[in-house]
Amino acid sequence: MSEKPDQPMKILVVDVGGTHVKCASTNHPSQREFASGAQLTAADMVNQVLKITRSWKCDAVTIGYPGVVAGGRPVRDPKNLGSGWVGFDFAAAFNRPVRIFNDAAMQALGNYTGGKMLFLGLGTGFGSALIVDHMVVPMELAHLQWRKGRDYEYYVGDHGRRRLGVKKWRAKVLEIVGDFRNAFQPDEIVLGGGNARRLKGLPPVTRLGDDRAAFHGGLRFWDDPTRNAEVRARPSDAADKAGKSKRRTKLTARPSR
Question: What is the pTM of this model?
Fold first, then answer.
């Protein structure tokens, strides 16, 4: 009797933001969300995701993390969320293989169509990622100093928008986009995040990102069939988690920083 072909993997994508955490999956593309904020810890996030997706079946999880990721793990707690993210065992908490990527890198990958693309995320903070010939390069441009000892996020993050007013904020965004266009010489710049649609008029070689980009990017991170086969071959029961969850997260090392 011939073997049945492998079924497509069911991926849960979790996009962690400074205002909301959004979830969607392969079988449940309609997004669900809950409020995040300055008190949200890693454990709180997982518990609430499991609660609102308790009827969903998934084989693996992708997390878009609003901070620095190295070796598939957060290395700094997010600036706009609570503590407890560094060292947290997400694979054990979800009881599934987990890949963690910078949230801007995940959105960038979901918007990518080829060549050299610079992604700038205008949300609670200021995210950034560069993709060159399908290689994702997460960056931390937000906290580079720009003017008067202040970083870029101070001017174009959500606090900057509220402080400056929309008109002055738009001018700062356009100025910064121009600086980065000159510095990186991309084929195109994609502006994403919740505040991107507050802009009026876009600079040259610039477009607005897809609202569903984070979800599509989270799925794309599992496109490698060799890695997917390895995930299927691993049990996910509690006895196995302690010995193998670390090796699972190391799979993310190439596209993350």
Answer: 0.81
